[in-house]
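Subject: Sanity check before I submit

Could someone independently write out the structure tokens for this chain? I want to compare against mine line by line before I put it in a report. The sequence has 359 residues.
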Amino acid sequence: MSRENSSPPSSPARATLADVAARAGVSPSTASIAFSGQGPVSAATKEKVLRAADDLGYVGPDPRAAGLRRGRSGIVGAVLASRIGVSFRDPVLIQTLDGLADELSSIGAGLLLMSASNESASQVTVADAPVDAAVLLGCSPAPGASLDTMRRRGIPMVAIEADPVEGSPLITVDNRGGTRLLAQHLKDLGHERVSVITLALDRPTQPCRLAPDIEALGVVPARERLAGARDVYPEISGWVAGGSRVDAGKRAALQLLDVAESERPTAIIAQSDLIAAGAVAAARELGLDVPRDLSVVGFDGIRVDALGMRLTTVVQPAQAKGAAAGRAVIALLEGDEAESVSFDVRFVAGETTGPAPSR
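---
Independent answer below. Compare away.
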């Protein structure tokens, strides 16, 4: 049959950053970072993303996209609590950035990573970044001066598990309630000597003993999860991990466990699954059985392959947090109101908890 009289094909839809990410086989946040030239992405990954962009004809954010009005940069800043290189070791943060980048790709916006840490080597600072909006991820009050500058510039802001910014929407999860569930689970199993290993309370550092004078420095998730543990164990204390990493959790756990049996906790509440995996590794190194000698709980609900057993934890919707922040940014850029959103968490019983040992 002749095709001469058939209707001409419609113009192909303009490629988006999400299309580039799918073709390159990477996450939307990695594609955004690679395409913008910002952040810790390998040369091979960057080349793969740029090749995919070239194949699809993607040249960057669409200046005609809804919400990116004339005079805007087409860039949204993601302000991280820690240095960028350190932050990218956290799978929960990566999932959150994936959700954020994926949502922003619907309006053709790029994502620029910045650090609130003074140790950042980035040439672009929080105060002078050419961004249309900013998303604060777990930031403590430390970057207050920079945020004041952004307010004066009239840059819309959205906070994800960060200290609230007046007039800005806040995206949260039930950190306190989730940890309360974990602590009550241990209480129901008969555990009385329980310790906590917290997320880094300021910026990643060496493990240190948890003390009242440093608790106020903590990022929002660390403070809220500690409060949830104290709802059940009012006097609970422990150690601060150097970061949400297995090695940091192991070093902190060794401080708690490599002591006389009469002083050793029978359970550890770790503020992330990676820290919990480190605590299990420390117990094994000392010849302790989990959960017979020590029960361990985490927080996040991520997959930890090195653990070798199912972790008792609570699952949080990390990608959904990022997507909610992206929708809030889009609303603000459109001149609409953006509401705060709070997500529930879900308790999951695993193989790392059991009855308190009789001593």
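---
OP: Matches mine. For the report I'm noting this point. The domain at 175-316 is CATH 3.40.50.2300 (Rossmann fold).
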